[in-house]
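> agent: user asked for a holo structure of the chain below bound to MTE. Plan: (1) validate sequence alphabet, (2) canonicalize SMILES, (3) run complex prediction with ligand conditioning, (4) return tokens. Step 1... ok. Step 2... ok. Step 3 dispatched.
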Amino acid sequence: MHTRRRFLRNGLCVSGALLVGCGDDDATATDAGPPLDDDAGPPGVDAGPPDAGAPSCPDALAGATKVADLRFLREGDAPFHRLLGAGWDARRYTDLRELDTDPDLVVPNDRFYVRTGYPDLIDPTLPWRITVSGLVDADVELGPSDLEPLVVDRGIQVLECSGNGDFSGFGLLSAARWAGAPLMDVLALASVRPEATRVLVSGFDGHSRPSAGGHSTPGASWIFTFDELERAGAILATRMNGAPLPNDNGFPVRLLVPNWYGCCNVKWVDEIVLVDEEHEATAQMWEFATRTHQTRAHRLARDYAPATMDQAAMPVRVEQWRRADGRLAYRIVGILWGGYSVTDALVIRLGGADFVPVDVCPPHRDNSAFTRWEHVWEPPAPGEYEIAMRIDDPGVPTRRLDSGFYVREVSITEV
Ligand SMILES: Nc1nc2c(c(=O)[nH]1)N[C@H]1C(S)=C(S)[C@@H](COP(=O)(O)O)O[C@H]1N2
Ligand SMILES: [Mo]
């Protein structure tokens, strides 16, 4: 564990040495500086040797021995990392307890969550075509090879299904490294008419089996303004963790809108339509309205707020440890994700106690990837405890977190 954490720390220092105060033993979360600038240069080029004076995060359980991992209470027990069901009802849940086995908290492609499997009505022998139509002078047909010259690296980005929940250990949540063609650059390949103000992105959704219980509305599409696409850095993604997209994650082309809920990240993109302010919202936008913080399922696309993910946090693993002197302690390991700015204001509440600060080390410095945190706890007595997280900063939006969505519970039988 210690080795891994040092590795994580060093990895971050290499890419953001000047920003996170690496090499400065007095660096604290509060003087951690601005988030890492994407243009800060390739990792490791001018940051010196990774070990150069980097302070390691203190290990509050140095010398202790791990006894067990606790289970979260009253959560579903669907198996992880296995594709369950087919078509619209296909799901694969990521085991977030294992997230920090990767120093960058990236999920391998075969464990990345899946919501809706590869449509069985796709004919893989036909070339993939994306039609750009609507308010354009002439329709354009593009294939993956037209996107290739435009491809950029979008780095690590988290995807979360807005329908995530404790039925699956919150396993509809993963991060990967993504690359693809910026959608705004793709639109530049068409002659977009001045009346066009919005972009409808639609994906193939032909499944021979209907969704059981009508849980999913056919037709996966979402409408964005140009500004939303530009600001988010939306790409037509063709690569995930350095490999072509897996079939179930949208092969050959999916939309990736960084920090927008999963439902906006249309898979198997085959159609882009330029529309105006009067265009109706899509069935997908109606279906996911409440889960993406819309005030209601508005009829027109223009009335939808960006379906972005506010700052969120939750525990993913609770470990029981025995100290050298025989006393027990519990290590709560968790993640921070989403949000729009870095924060050092994470606080935790255990059972009926007060919220106390979590010293996130290395500090939170990037809203795109997961940030790991941990908190060592000595419960006062056996019993069931709720673990609740909050951001103690009124300037940081945390709608879903504050609704209690990510509260988890454990049973402590021994203290
Ligand atoms: N064509 C299509 N795209 C889709 C969906 C879908 O059902 N069909 N589901 C959406 C939802 S609800 C989510 S959460 C993400 C899931 O992406 P993933 O399976 O790659 O994790 O894909 C989105 N894109
Ligand atoms: Mo979703």
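> agent: step 4 complete. Summary for user: The longest strand covers residues 312-322. Residues 112-116, 159, 161, 203-205, 216, 220, 249-250, 262-263, 265-268 surround MTE (ligand 1) (CB under 6 Å).
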